[in-house]
Amino acid sequence: MCMLWFWNPSNPQQPRSWPSDHALRGREVTSKPAMVDPEGRSRATERLRSRDLDGIAQFMADHARHVVVLCGAGISTSAGIPDFRSPGTGLYHNLQRFDLPEAEAIFDLKYFQKHPDAFYELCREMWPGNYAPTACHYFIRLLSDKGILQRCYTQNIDSLEHAAGIPAELLVAAHGNFDAAHVVDDNVGLASSYDVDITELQDALHDPGDEGWQELREHHGGLVKPKIVFFGEELPKRFFELHKADLALCDLLLVMGTSLQVSPFNTLLSLTSDKPRLLINREAVGSCDELAGGFCFQADSDGQDVFYQGDCDAGVEALAERLGWLKELQELVALGQKEAEELQHSEKLPSHSVFSEECH
């Protein structure tokens, strides 16, 4: 039985030497540049003072200038969007009403080409604007605002990162999202043929029923879907073009709200095993016993892995408090909720009815 390093959220005391927010923004980089081995992996030159949130916060102030974020469905659940696999409440459970052969069929390219109506109902429900970004999304936004976000790699398809104001150049939507759309060839199994303005699909799905998307299909000669990666489709080129360089430059890895069960996304951990890494999650995932270069939380390990066990929003709020960013974070969350409410009352969004009321 191994001992794990857990952060206790009941102790919110800040580090005594924590610099002011203005000092952090204007501070020149004092840490040495990351060394890179012959295979392109960087070697860390600075270490955490302690393996807890205080240590992470102090490291961010002193050394972190290239933070990489890996995030999954857990950062969006507080917005009202179910994760995929939670029994009784997850997305796959809620999709049983469509009588799918299996829950994953909703994201199967061949199934979509034969039975598109179920996926279009899901699109209506998850369309950007139906939900407001969470504290996690806005914490990533703050990393960008303060100039220390190298990249955010997200598994989520909800586009809430974009809604939170994270610049597109700092985002990699590994599984796609609602930012763009394309035509899928009607010949089952073939890839997409060309891009379509996402607003065309939004307009087609505005009213319930099949008429809108069927007219769009006739107009473009094939089904139109958001650029969400289905089973049978490749990940975006951007993922493969950027991840090695980003993780070589990374000086702090922040992982939030993901089960780390999906490849190749979970293989990104193997490129950061020598870096300080923080996992914010309800349970420990991606252990070194399961993944190459995975987390090693044992007290006697040589790694610099920290685990905050709990709700993702609570985790970033606790870290933001130590960084002196909590007020900014709360203001962004409040503003985002107000904007989402105004959009929901504008009648510009597609109608939706997939999830039961208790999910909102």
From TrEMBL:
The keyword NAD applies. It comes from Durusdinium trenchii. Its cofactor is Zn(2+). Residues 46-326 form the Deacetylase sirtuin-type domain. Keywords: Metal-binding, NAD, Transferase, Zinc. This is NAD-dependent protein deacetylase sirtuin-2 (Regulatory protein SIR2 homolog 2) (SIR2-like protein 2). InterPro entries: DHS-like_NAD/FAD-binding_dom, NAD-dep_sirtuin_deacylases, Sirtuin, Sirtuin_cat_small_dom_sf, Ssirtuin_cat_dom. It comes from the Eukaryota. The lineage of its organism: Eukaryota, Sar, Alveolata, Dinophyceae, Suessiales. The keyword Metal-binding applies. Pfam families: SIR2.
